[in-house]
């Protein structure tokens, strides 16, 4: 009689599968286990799932920009920023290499953030008009800001695989926010396209055909469980490329955010 075959070795995670739940270090395995946003944010900052992004964010922190050569860069993934019971969520693209990757907070320390937080302050949704550092005392009222990609990418262009690898973080974030969130603003076409599958995974129904991005675009997403519907708005990204050319003005940002905040029930000023 032949001896019994040895037990099969466990299958190694497929490195080409960004959502392999068998990999204990990947967002797809970690994010669903978190019970609240505090736990989620704590795990996000330690993520090393995307080798190219890890290398870039850390290299940028070593080489630095001349103006910031005396500063110690954060050089880690950036969690969402804002209250855990937010009614309005702003979705960006990814941290800036010398902005959030340096300061440790989303849209902080760069021209995009200067415009965005100034607008939120004018609307009574932020306690101050500027954002310099992760612990500078800035507070948001009813608004949370997040990114579908949590690490600064080279040339501000994450790959599709990196976007998909990171997706479970933001899906879980929206799952945790479901009791309160009523409106979302996608800042740019990338954010809009990234947000649609995220919102579908988090419990809302995306219309068919899929809504098309544009500044002022608006779609209503019913809740899959019969709960509160979600308003999705499109806004040109608050990047210098748009603002310095006049494609996007502070007044346009104010108007769009005011509309979204009103839909969310925040009563902006």
TrEMBL record:
Biased composition (Pro residues): 1-18
Domain of life: Bacteria
UniProt KW Aminoacyl-tRNA synthetase keyword: no
Molecular function GO terms recorded: 4 iron, 4 sulfur cluster binding; DNA-deoxyinosine glycosylase activity; metal ion binding; uracil DNA N-glycosylase activity
CDD domains: UDG-F5_TTUDGB_like
Family annotation (Gene3D superfamilies): Uracil-DNA glycosylase-like domain
UniProt xrefs under InterPro entries: UDG_Type-4/5 (IPR051536), UdgB-like (IPR044147), Uracil-DNA_glycosylase-like (IPR005122), Uracil-DNA_glycosylase-like_sf (IPR036895)
Keywords: 4Fe-4S, DNA damage, DNA repair, Glycosidase, Hydrolase, Iron, Iron-sulfur, Metal-binding
Region feature (Disordered): 1-29
Gene Ontology biological process terms in this record: base-excision repair
Domain Uracil-DNA glycosylase-like: 79-257
Family as reported in the entry's similarity comment: Belongs to the uracil-DNA glycosylase (UDG) superfamily. Type 5 (UDGb) family.
Protein name: Type-5 uracil-DNA glycosylase
